[in-house]
Amino acid sequence: MPSETYLLADDPKPEIKQPHSDAQKLLNFLQHWAKDTVTVRQIRVYGPRGLRDRRSAIDAAEILVANGWLNSIKPSRPDTYAWEIVRKNIVHPTVAM
Fold it and tell me: What pTM did the predictor assign?
């Protein structure tokens, strides 16, 4: 019996990329946001689809505050949250810098 080898049999398995975290998705979105500030309502309306929930939008923004990408500011309304965007000259920013 001849031994057969298949070209695809020994190829390494492709690397599976993990989906971005909500904070990384928010950071990517904020790089294209034209204003200097953003509110939780703006994140929920205009932001990534995974952040349409109020709690997940606030949690993702707080992660960016902890990593220096956002600064908390006083919002114009007492029942909401607002942040100032920290702009950095980085081509592909990541949350944990």
Answer: 0.75
Ranges of the chain with pLDDT below 70: 1-2, 4-20, 97
Domain 22-85 classification at class level: mainly alpha
pLDDT at 17: 55
Each domain of the chain, given as residue ranges in start order, spans 22-85
- Asked if 82 and 73 touch (Cβ cutoff 8 Å), the reply is yes
What distance in Å separates the CA atoms of residue 6 and residue 95, rounded to the nearest whole number? 42
Dist. CA 54–CA 58, nearest whole Å: 6
Alpha carbons 34 and 46: distance in angstroms, whole number? 12
Burial of 93 (0-12, 13-18, 19+ CB in 10 A): middle
Interacting residues of 5 by C-beta distance below 8 A, sequence separation 6+: none
> Which whole-number Å values give the CA distances from 29 to 1, 7, 93, in the listed order?
59, 42, 11
